[in-house]
Amino acid sequence: MGRKQTNSELGRCALLALLFLGAISCCVVYILLSAALRPTPTSPVVDAIDSGDGLGRREEAECCRGIEHLELWGDAVKWGSDFKLNSSEECCRACKAMCSGVDGPCLCDSWVFCGDRKACGANFGECWLKKQKESFNPDRRDSGENVMWTSGLVFGKGEDIVGLHTEYGVLRIKVRSSPTGLFPDCAPHSVAYILELLRLRLCVGCQLHRAEGRGISWDSQGNHITNAPFGPPYALIQGTLAADGTTTAFKEIQREEWPCPQIRRGSVAWVGSGPEFFISLANHHEWRSQTYTVFGSLLPEDLEIAEKIAHLPTKQEVWSNIDVSVLDEPIRLRVVPVPFLFKS
Predict the structure, then answer these.
(1) Contacts of 282 (CB under 8 A, 6+ apart)
(2) Phi and psi dihedrals of 20, rounded to 5?
(3) How many other CB atoms are there within 10 angstroms of residue 343's CB atom?
(4) Rounded to whole angstroms, how far apart are CA atoms 159 and 175?
(5) Which of 23, 41, 256, 308 has the maximal Cβ count within 10 Å?
(6) Dihedral (Cα; 209, 214, 215, 219), 10-degree rounding
(7) For residues 339 and 341, what is the distance between their CA atoms, to the nearest angstrom?
(8) H/E/C letters for each residue in the chain?
(9) What is the tens place of the pLDDT at every residue in 91-115?
(10) In whole angstroms, how far apart are CA 171 and each of 124, 242, 338?
């Protein structure tokens, strides 16, 4: 049975209650101050927009990926049995370190890593650095779910580049592991698809079908004009790289891991998972790279060709509630290798 509290007991309870309330008040004040003073977290995309082209430099440092369940062959320049690393990214960077010259082919243009401890067994951690006879046509030993290796490519300056041949000239895509060119280390699945088209030497069905200039929204350097709308027109030329007659596997590109470079003037990117693609004529900071995968960049001097195509006769259509300009006559494309000596 309960009993009536004495005055001393009441005093002690009151004191304890006051101390408890004081402790709670201190905690609340600390939390509020911490929230007010803590820097607001921002996404990499927002950071990049605020700091100009910072995203491209950060991604160049971070992107070093390959394709799982793929084993590339080729002449070994460093034997994996004597060279073990902790991750495929470290293996990729080891290859890139041998491809840093200003001109000339890379000493290492492909790498193979074994990162599945259970499947690899004694081969776990092996990093094989290799040199292909043709960097655009790497020697594939095996692929599939049962293959324990992860492989990737590294392209250097002074090597061949991919060209999109049109009746108005060749749109050349640089082959470099950098903010310009193909991105084998950032978008390996996309580049593998382009190389497959190159090996086919025929791209029936590949074409450009949409063309929109910069209008009043972007200047000649691709910078957005203050207070101008973001389109239409949307400053791009768009088409498809779905080659008729190829297998279904080549008609949908596996989505790349984010992040990949943001869209700038000259960027070449997939729409979603492809094979629809576009070449941007402006710096589209308002577009997010989670939706578009940038896999290459046009040579600056070839932007003139792209601009010319963007001003060809078009007709207006509506795609998914968006007004677009469609070419009166689609432009056929061929994917071709283009000898080119890069000059910095």
Answers:
(1) 214, 217, 218, 222, 223, 224, 235, 236, 265
(2) -65, -45
(3) 8
(4) 7
(5) 256
(6) -170
(7) 7
(8) CCCCCCHHHHHHHHHHHHHHHHHHHHHHHHHHHHHHHCCCCCCHHHHHHHCCCHHHHHHHHHCCCCEECEEECCEEEECHHHCECCCHHHHHHHHHHCCCCCCCCCCCCEEEEECCHHHHHHHCCEEEEEECCCCCCCCEEEECCCCCEEEEECCCCCCCEEEEEECCEEEEECCCCCCCCCCCCCCHHHHHHHHHHHHHCCCCCCEEEEEECCCCCECCCCCECCCCCCCCCCCEEEEECCCCCCCHHHCCCCCCCCCCCCCCCCEEEEECCCCEEEEECCCCCCCCCCCEEEEEEECHHHHHHHHHHHCCCEEEEEECCEEEEEEEEEEECEEEEECCCCCC
(9) 998 998 887 665 556 789 899 999 9
(10) 42, 17, 10
CB 136 within 8 A of CB 182: no
Q: What's the full length of the chain, in residues?
A: 344
Residue that wins the pLDDT comparison between 46 and 121? 121
Per the CB < 8 A criterion, the answer to whether 176 and 155 are in contact is yes
Give exposure, 268-286, as e/b (b: 16+ Cβ within 10 Å). Answer: bbbeeebbbbbbbbbbbbe
Q: Give the whole-angstrom CA distance, residue 95 versus residue 130.
A: 8
Rounded Cα–Cα distance for residues 200 and 197 (Å): 5
Cα distance between residue 101 and residue 120, in whole Å: 33
pLDDT tens digits, one per residue of 146-166? 999 999 888 776 565 788 999
Q: What's the half-sphere exposure (Cβ side, CA atoms, 13 Å) at 50? A: 6
pLDDT band of 199, cuts 50, 70, 90: confident
Residue with structure tokens 């793929």? 70
The sign one gets for the Cα dihedral 145, 242, 177, 76 is positive
In whole angstroms, give the CA distance from residue 177 to residue 186. 8
Tokens of 317: 């259509």
